[in-house]
UniProtKB/TrEMBL annotation:
Positions in coiled-coil regions: 167-212
Entries under InterPro entries matching the protein: Biofilm_reg_signaling, EAL_dom, EAL_sf, GGDEF_dom, Nucleotide_cyclase, PAC, PAS, PAS-assoc_C
Name of the protein in question: Diguanylate cyclase
Keywords recorded for this protein, A-Z: Coiled coil
Amino acid sequence: MGPINSENDNSDTEKLSLRQPLETIIMEGGFDRDVSETGSFFIADVEATYLGKLLSALPMPALLVDQWFTIIFANEASASSSSDAERLRGKDVRTLFLDASHGAKIGEIFQNVFSRKKLAIVETLLRLPNKKMWCRLHARRLRLGYERLLLILAEDLTLEKRQINLRSRHQKELKQAHDQLEKRVQERTAELMDLTKRLQQEISDRAQAESELELSARMIESSTEAILLIDVDGVILRANEAVAAITGYPKSRLIGQSMEFFQWGRRYSDLSQKIRQAMVESGEWRGEVWDRRMDGNIYPALLSISAIRNDKWETTHYVCIFSDISKIKQTQKHLQRLAHYDSLTGLPNRALFQDRLSQALVLAQRHDKMVTLMLLDLDRFKNINDTMGHGFGDKVLIAVAERLKNNLRTSDTAARLGGDEFVLLLPSMSSTHGAITVAQNILNDFTKPLTIEGREVFLSASVGVSTYPNDCDTPEKLLRNVDMALHYAKERGKNHFRFYSHEMNELAVRRQRLEHILRMSMSRDLFLLYYQPMLDISTGRIAGIEALLRWRHPVHGVMSAANLIPVAEETGLIVEIGDWVLRKVCDQVKKWNDLGFRGLRTAINVSARQLKQRGSAEAMVKILEQSFTDPRLVEFELTESVIMEDTEETIDVFQKLRNHGIRLSIDDFGTGYS
């Protein structure tokens, strides 16, 4: 191991006088000085110096240690003889400590003394030749010649430790005696306290038992549930006030009566037997029963009967608890109705209707009967909501529901699917003639005005009809078929009924294919416009141009888009197509103006679905403004059917277009179609 610190710091040290007293040398740090005036000294001459003599005369162990922790001097007090002290020289001072790890820690402290010139005091167990001792080490750095050494003085703490141990033992013995005395006092006191506590507990238990009995009696009396105490023979011993409140019988009349006074088991012959059997097997029974009040009214009750047993597990009594659950039953019934009936009209909702439809088909199959399904939709009901408000519209729906029920048999079902759509289920029909009669009667009934809030309301309806087993054999197919029939009834001009036919399904498939073609054509830009001139017969000149929509068929080339327009109107794509046509026309008008063909008015066919779209007029005007097209050069052609439908809304749209200078005209007037 290298030296603790080999640095040379002669610059700030003073010379040491060995004649100073030992206490002054240790406490004031006088060792941090040269030993001689000449500055030369040999470690072997320590004993001959005043310091060596002084250390040898000390009654406590004294050691001098060099920078490598090697003992270079040990006085006789460090051992039992001078020869033992001589054997200490040359040893590592850290080996004198019993614990190696502790010795290393002491070594670190000594190293700090070498480095910082501070006095260190440490209490430890020191192992010297022929003895071990507790001591307090005083360590201080000093300089002998050119060598820096560590002076270690060991103050013997053996007597002090012995006195401390003796004092500790005496204190421990005194504490044990005190504890024993205190324990005997506590034991005697505990015996008295235990007797007192048992007496108090006995008094308290008796008072608590009486209090609990009183509390239990009050609890039973204040309970809203009826409680009866019955003996093993079935005789009523006690009853609370709730029994009288629920049944109407005073307690005085019930006490002493047999349990058979209550009529829980009389409505069901086997109920009493089940209760008795449960009492024998498990000692308890719980369930719903029906009982009769004193006034004769029947009410539902939730009944619970339990056996009371003693320590020998013998039944001594029965406790019977029951409550009136009339309100719960009413709530359940109300929730059941909300789950299966329309909250506005009171008619069965979709869930209940589908359940009845499934049952009707099962019965029809079993008894070889026909089931007729009718789907009814009010024509132009949206106008009523928009003009009169939804509250007024709700009253109209309620009146319609009443009319429908008046046209049906008790075995028939009228249900509301949602909005203004109703469905009629007619089971056990003998032929389609009966269904035709019902459908015609319903339409005839709708010709009569309804009086709502003092106003007459005229309605019409479209009806789709499908039958089992003629059309299909499952509820899902029957609903799908009747929906197709309703669609075709509306296409006939409303206020009609239409029976489903297999051709409708083929048309529906074809319509679905056309819708796919339509969407594909929009995404692939397969539409184009042809422009047809309109001549003035009197002059032979071109008076205007009409834009005609065409479709580039992948196989057959350019074709009329007439077959796609109805599908576009149904799907709503007509709005997107109409906007596309208007933009293309505006671009073409601009090109014609640039070529010098000014003042030519271009006519565009406008669909009814476009005009019904909210904000349609504003959208058309915006397209004209974005393309910088003069509105006077554009003319919108409308069919007469557009003008006749939703008159008020249509007039409003017309007025907005006219206000922006757009001209309107009727196309194919008198034909009823475009």
